[in-house]
Amino acid sequence: MKKKNIIRLTVSGMLIALEILMAFTPVGYLKIGLLSITFMTIPVIVGAVTNGLYVGTVLGLTFGITSFVQCFGMDAFGTALFQIQPVYTFILCVATRTLMGFLCALIYKGLSKTKLPSGLQVGISAFSAPFLNTAFFVPCLILFFWNTDYIRGIAGGANVLKFLVGLVGVNGIVEWIACTAVGTAVCIPLLKALRRKIN
Hints:
Distance between the termini: 10 Å
CATH architecture: Orthogonal Bundle
CATH class: Mainly Alpha
Radius of gyration: 17 Å
Number of strands: 2
């Protein structure tokens, strides 16, 4: 048990460090105008699948905090939202990402008890992270900020449905494919290696 905890703690620490590094370098985000396509869910996937609910939640929280920190002048879009409504921006950045990490781990925990092939269990869980990130972030953005001049200006006269589809189309598809592929590719051999080390 002690060996298991040490290994999991080491992996978790490395993933948190990687997430912080990604957050403040170009590796974590692909900037397209004011918006960003994020690959920050990849460490969350790896932690949630290989280390469970607590680590998945902590990594989701870390993602959220680093995202919120960027609202202090580091990211134009986030900074504008923070200036409009700081509390809503905190919820948008931190609460949604924390919940995403928890649910990704919970989904894998549930799937691991089924008879689905292990690769499919991992793949579905990996997909859930970027999907849930989009599913939480975009509706909250619309709910909290749609009636602001800033978001209406970005929307350019489009109605709320067109704006939602546009955001998902730009960010969602690339994130879903990239994060699912990389997350799955990392998790499958890492799970095997961890099981060998623990056993």
